[in-house]
Amino acid sequence: MIVCQCRRVSEKAIRKAVRKGHRKVSQVSQATGAGSGCGTCRETVRSVVRDEKEKVSAEGGVLLSASAASASSPA
Ligand code: FES
């Protein structure tokens, strides 16, 4: 499902960004572009970010920091 129509960002892409360590809506927005257009999707983006963080926490997982995630990603 597309959450951000302006930037064509899916819910899946937002969840993936959270799992890569982008914990804040601003970080997810910077990483995916979601919410950086008209702004009408920001509340939905916020809710997906919150939900995914809760999901990771319930799974007993630890969210990486964005810098740690990018440091471990292949170039
Ligand atoms: S719908 Fe996401 S910024 Fe416009």
Please describe the topology of this protein.
Blueprint: E1 2-4, E2 9-10, H1 11-19, H2 25-32, H3 42-58, H4 66-72
Antiparallel strand pairs: 1-2
Helix pairs in contact: 1-3
Describe this structure in words.
The protein is mainly alpha-helical and 75 residues long. It has one domain (2-59): Arc Repressor Mutant, subunit A (Orthogonal Bundle). The chain has helices at residues 11-19, 25-32, 42-58, 66-72; strands spanning 2-4, 9-10. A two-stranded antiparallel sheet has the order 1-2. Strand 1 and strand 2 form a beta hairpin. The mean pLDDT is 89. The structure holds FE2/S2 (inorganic) cluster (FES). FE2/S2 (inorganic) cluster binds at residues 4-7, 34-41. FE2/S2 (inorganic) cluster (FES) is lined by residues 4-7, 34-41.
What does this entry show, briefly?
The protein is mostly helical and 75 residues long. The chain has helices at 11-19, 25-32, 42-58, 66-72; strands at residues 2-4, 9-10.
Index terms:
mainly alpha, Arc Repressor Mutant, subunit A, 4 helices, globular, binds FE2/S2 (inorganic) cluster
Shape: globular
Instruction: Please give the order of strands in the largest beta sheet.
Output: 1-2
Decide which structural class fits the backbone. Answer: mainly alpha
Examine the coordinates and then state which fold CATH places here, giving the name of the CATH topology: Arc Repressor Mutant, subunit A
